[in-house]
Amino acid sequence: MIEIKTPQEILKIKRSCALVAELLEELEKLIVPGVTTRELDEFAEDYIRRKRAIPAFKGYRNYPASICTSVNEVIVHGIPDDTKLKEGEIIGIDVGVLMDGYYGDAAKTFPVGKVQQQYLHLIQITKESLHIGIEQIKENNRIGDLSHAIQKHVERNGYNVIRDFVGHGVGIRLHEDPKIPNYGEPSTGPRLKTGMVLAIEPMVTMGSYEVEILPDQWTARTKDGSYSAHFEHTVAVTHTEALILTTT
Ligand code: MF3
Ligand code: CO
Predict the structure, then answer these.
(1) Three-state SS across the chain?
(2) What pTM value is reported for the model?
């Protein structure tokens, strides 16, 4: 069942989302060669708790940290540790918070220092695919319309979308119905209705979309080692468009 949120609920989700967006902006400033992903995680946890919110990922199915830090060929769910970021790498950071009973969820991929043009292009196309998906969102369009738009943009640029992870409804819980694949056929899937709140999150790789999970049970990387990027926004469906909630 896909929950329909009231305008008052959407306002509360918006507050959580604004905190997520603000924190991603702060984290971006800290991404320099030499910083460890654990330092980013500690900064994030302090930041969230100082705002009287709760890091939504920490403890979720035993996930051990407040953010996900996914470097290079890691697609999503990278666990922060003491490895230093190096010039030329790319890092996806995923943040979720719970505040006043409501969740917000967003992710972005950043370059570390000076990065090869081919990886900057991957980041750019992934970001564009998120926004092209969001453009398909309005009342009575269907999930498949946005899934298809994302896939088309990615594949037109010679990349592939990851199949094993999908976007999701969000708000009262971190993961609600519906599942939102980043591939699919137009005019299929659930119909969008005003008041739905959705986390759209394309994950894009330069190689094959086959995934491997590391022994830590979380880290998801591409099997062939090709680099991967991830962007995510939480949005609210209205009669005419999607309102992006994860903005400052
Ligand atoms: N944005 C991701 C998601 O919605 C992050 C989940 S990380 C987890 O699935 F640790 F909470 F699982
Ligand atoms: Co998500």
Answers:
(1) CCCCCCHHHHHHHHHHHHHHHHHHHHHHHHCCCCCEHHHHHHHHHHHHHHCCCEECCCCHHHCCCCEEEEECCEEECCCCCCCECCCCCEEEEEEEEEECCEEEEEEEEEECCCCCHHHHHHHHHHHHHHHHHHHCCCCCCEHHHHHHHHHHHHHHCCCEECCCCCEEECCCCCCEEEEECCCCCCCCCCECCCCCEEEECCEEECCCCCEEECCCCCCEEECCCCCEEECEEEEEECCCCEEECCCC
(2) 0.98
Taking residues 232-240, what's their average pLDDT? 97
Q: Give the chain's domains with CATH numbers.
A: 7-244 (3.90.230.10)
Q: Which ligand is nearest to the CA of 235?
A: 2
If one residue of 17, 23, 57 were mutated to test the ligand 1 pocket, choosing by the most ligand atoms within 8 A of its CB, it would be 57
Closest to 242 (Cα-Cα) out of 105, 139, 129: 139
The pLDDT assigned to 226 comes to: 99
Position 20 scores a pLDDT of 99
User: Looking at ligand 1, which residue's alpha carbon is closest to its atom 11?
Assistant: 57
What pLDDT, in 10s, does the model give residues 79-127? 999 999 999 999 999 999 999 999 999 999 999 999 999 999 999 999 9
Q: How many angstroms separate the alpha carbon of residue 201 from the centre of ligand 2?
A: 6
